[in-house]
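Saturday, quiet lab. Running sequence design on the structure tokens for the scaffold JK sent over.
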């Protein structure tokens, strides 16, 4: 079991790593059986992924399709080893040049210092429209 403060600290460290482009750090904290869920149709990184390899594929698709101009985790809520982060982001589609922005929520389930479940909630329609040519 992970303590609540440790779970929040882990999530914050993952966002910090993402912000500096250290995706290997993020992937190193993904459990082998982790379910990694990004919703939406018509969004290049959308899908259900499993484990570090799946999370790596997600980040590869994300980086290949979107350029982040703002990414701001703002609030954290915890219940046991579960952390919900609320934030805001702005991106540009690499394929179309169109911009998109959304408030988001991300759920992290943490066990023994690793993410065992991640799911994002955001305005998928805005992102699908921006990726449409």
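Result came back. Writing it out in full:
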């Amino acid at each position: 079991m992970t303590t609540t403060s440790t779970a929040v600290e882990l999530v914050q460290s993952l966002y910090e790593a993402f912000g500096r482009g250290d995706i290997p750090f993020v992937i190193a904290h993904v459990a082998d059986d982790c379910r990694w869920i990004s919703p939406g149709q018509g969004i290049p990184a959308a899908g259900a992924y499993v484990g570090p390899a799946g999370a790596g594929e997600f980040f590869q698709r994300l980086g290949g399709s979107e350029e982040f101009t703002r990414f701001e985790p703002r609030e954290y809520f915890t219940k046991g080893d579960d952390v919900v982060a609320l934030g805001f982001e702005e991106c540009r589609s690499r394929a179309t040049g169109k911009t998109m922005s959304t408030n988001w929520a991300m759920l992290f389930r943490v066990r023994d210092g690793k993410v065992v479940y991640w799911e994002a909630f955001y305005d998928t329609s805005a992102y699908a429209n921006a990726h449409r040519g």
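Notes for JK: The CA atoms of residues 55 and 108 lie 13 Å apart. The chain has a mean pLDDT of 95. Ask whether to fix the surface positions before the next round.
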